[in-house]
Write a structure and sequence with these properties.
By secondary structure, the chain is mostly helical. The chain is built from 16 helices and no strands.
Length: 330
């Protein structure tokens, strides 16, 4: 289903791009998006990337065709649905606001469209919050498991370097801390309300650890960003082949593909950068603002997690500039 959804979304994108670019460039963009191995591989997995990429493609279709406040009210509702699928969409309206700001409309119309978008998305968030409140007695719309992300993916590494201990000792220290919270406050994690209070304290402690070790935290985050942005066209294949990712990292296959990734990543980035330069004269400024800020947004908000799959939404938008480069040199 997800691959069919993606192909249909790309077909609709082609129809929308014809209003912005010539036919050859529109076709080139869609072909690159369809065959890009960084993107294509996720249609073969059970992760949420494929569906989310299809949602992003359809969002571009809706946005590029939107004219009235009703259209932006719908986009707000649509963004709310996207958020329910992937929480990284929560602040994405900021990118849309920037696009609206450069529309050729007066200030009143721009504010009306921004308000319509906010109302649409807020309605979905309120519905999620009401549902959670009826179930747990606490109004919230962010997934509770996200509150432990910093501890899971970052805090242990910070403790390891700051205290000069092994990673296993750092993880055990965090496990013991979590147990102490449960024992001190008598939380029953089977109760959703208690679990939320518990995770709030876990999250607060994680922030305190990062703030107390700013330099180490910054070093780790930069390293994570560089790792996440290293293109990986075979991640899904080897995640399927190897049950344990550590075994793959020790294999000759990993050594081979690491060299390939180190070669193709700068090539892709350079071609994308040149495509951006070419686009200055070829693409209206409002579209460039949307595409460029989309790349920055998804990279900054999710690539602090050291997993290359979190860079895939940025690759989608970069593929448009990559296509512009190919079109210009052909």
């Amino acid at each position: 289903f997800q691959i069919i959804f993606f192909y249909l979304s790309t077909f609709f994108l082609n129809r929308s791009l014809l209003k912005i670019f010539d036919k050859n460039l529109s076709n080139t963009i869609c072909i690159v998006i369809l065959i890009n191995p960084i993107i294509f591989q996720w249609h073969m997995s059970f992760y949420t990337e494929s569906i989310f990429l299809s949602f992003l493609i359809l969002l571009m279709c809706f946005l590029f065709r939107s004219k009235s406040w009703v259209n932006f009210l719908f986009i707000g509702l649509y963004l709310g649905i996207m958020y329910s699928q992937r929480t990284i969409a929560l602040l994405y309206p900021i990118v849309i606001f920037s696009y609206i700001f450069f529309l050729n409309h007066n200030v009143r119309k721009k504010l009306f469209k921004i308000s319509s978008l906010l109302i649409g998305m807020s309605l979905i968030l309120i519905l999620i919050g009401i549902y959670n409140y009826n179930r747990s007695g606490i109004f919230y719309f962010t997934p509770i498991q996200s509150k432990s992300d910093i501890q899971t993916y970052l805090e242990a590494d910070v403790l390891k370097l700051s205290k000069k201990i092994s990673y296993e000792d750092a993880r055990n220290e965090l496990i013991n801390f979590n147990k102490s919270i449960i024992n001190t406050y008598g939380y029953d994690l089977q109760k959703e309300s208690d679990k939320i209070k518990y995770l709030n304290k876990v999250q607060k402690n994680s922030f305190n650890t990062l703030i107390a070790n700013k330099t180490i935290t910054l070093q780790i985050i930069i390293k994570n960003y560089l790792h996440a942005m290293l293109l990986n066209p075979v991640q899904v294949f080897y995640e399927t082949k190897y049950q344990n990712w550590i075994d793959y990292k020790k294999s000759d296959e990993h050594k081979f593909w690491l060299i390939v990734r180190i070669i193709i990543t700068p090539i892709f980035f350079i071609m994308t950068g040149l495509g951006m330069i070419f686009s200055i004269k070829k693409v209206e400024f409002k579209y460039n603002v949307f595409l460029f800020l989309s790349i920055i947004y998804f990279t900054s908000i999710s690539c602090w997690l050291p997993n290359t799959r979190y860079f895939v939404p940025s690759v989608l938008f970069m593929s448009i500039y990559f296509s512009i480069f190919l079109h210009e040199i052909s």
